[in-house]
Amino acid sequence: MSQMPQQAAVPKCPSCEEPLEPGDRFCGACGYDLSVVPARPEDSPTLAVNGAAPAPDGVDWPVARDSDGHGRPAPVHAAAELPGTDSGGSPLPPPPEAPPAAPAASAPGVRFDRPDEPDEYPLQAPDPRLTAERDAAERDAAAQGAAAPAPAAHVEPAAEKVCVACRAGRVDDDGYCENCGHAQPRERDHMEQESGPIAAVSDRGLRHHRNEDAFSVGCTALPDGAPASVAIVCDGVSSATRPDDASLAASRAAGESLLGALPRGTHPQQAMHDAILAASHAVNALADEPATAREQAPHQNAPACTLVGAVVTAGLLVVGWVGDSRVYWVPADRSTPPARLTEDDSWAAQMVAAGLMNEAEAYADERAHAITGWLGADAYELEPHTASFKPDRPGLVVVCTDGLWNYAESAEEMADAVPPDAAARPLHGARVLVGHALDGGGHDNVTVALLPFPAPPQGAGSA
Predict the structure, then answer these.
(1) pLDDT 10s digits, 179-207
(2) Which residues are within 8 A (CB) of 104 and not within 5 positions of it... i.e. 6 or more apart?
(3) Can you tell me the distance from the alpha carbon of 357 to that of 363, in angstroms, rounded to the nearest whole number?
(4) I need a labelling partner for 282 at 20 to 30 A (CA). Which of 63, 159, 331, 379 fits?
(5) Are 397 and 415 in contact (CB under 8 A)?
(6) How far is the C-alpha of 439 from the C-alpha of 432, rounded, in Å?
């Protein structure tokens, strides 16, 4: 008996990328048979991350729900509402009483860390002509019996920027050294941040003229006092306008949303879902430009970026993403298998899912990195993906853009690139991974955040 072909399961044709309408069975542009394209899987339930099947504990954490559509948060679940189990399937003892939740350890965002350097421009001695004029005025005032005039307020000159190349020339307003002509790095060319036990590094790479990546990291506490770590990594879509602004707005909005929701008792998976929606709203707002700007560039795409994030608690790991940035799991015991925890929204991933190509063939194609999901006002459809995992052993969570995983694509390759002490020294580990991408060619912006699992207690940091 013949079967009805299934309706379109993807927003674009896997063959020619022509937009599809709901219910299409064949592509109207190239005639591609859409019945061979499987439907996108639902967001994953809670899984054990140990290279084996999920632990038979019968506990399914709730899949994130949408907000009510009016800017108000949807009903949420506190983590304590569902029973937990250890790696053997036995119920966990009730948590001890804990003090109220501490505020977030650090505000989300990025910064450009530089080593402390001696002051190369100490204050100069007073001008002798000004000193002589002041002394003469004081003598005249004393002879006339009047009070001496108050000295003029001293205004320190603004510190001059020193060239990072020759260390001698002054940097002009255009960002170039007046001595050697070397262009100075911009603040976002290389960014590093360490927040308690987690860290992130972002670099412009060797081929791009600017860094279109951004990140947000921070630590907070759940209502029961248990620690929670948060990392968001965003990659601007280069073919869109203002991709750097899009990634920065998305990372800040998502990070602030997570660090605000978790201490209130929002379930981490629900909090991640809401954070992606908040990031989407922030990027969409960038498209509200004056009419004159749109008239000058009518064919430009709206600002857009991808997003990937992770929340790590004492016993739960939640990931969320839109686009092709990834999360990897690297166990502390390197004899156990690592894993990739996200699935790309990309042409290559669709080809593999449809069984039309194997992974090696798909990612070797020039269309491999054409994304099918992103944040932006012109996104075809926003589908936030979230998944929860319950690792049964300590390890490291790697959150990164394709600027890194292009040089360590498989989970095994990523684990080999991660230093053995990365969980104890996350900032060092992130620097090593960025260096791995730069040594491989640095063809794209590179951003990576590292989060140890389980989340260490508040106050713990890099050694």
Answers:
(1) 888 777 788 899 999 999 999 999 999 98
(2) 218, 219, 220, 259, 263
(3) 9
(4) 63
(5) no
(6) 10
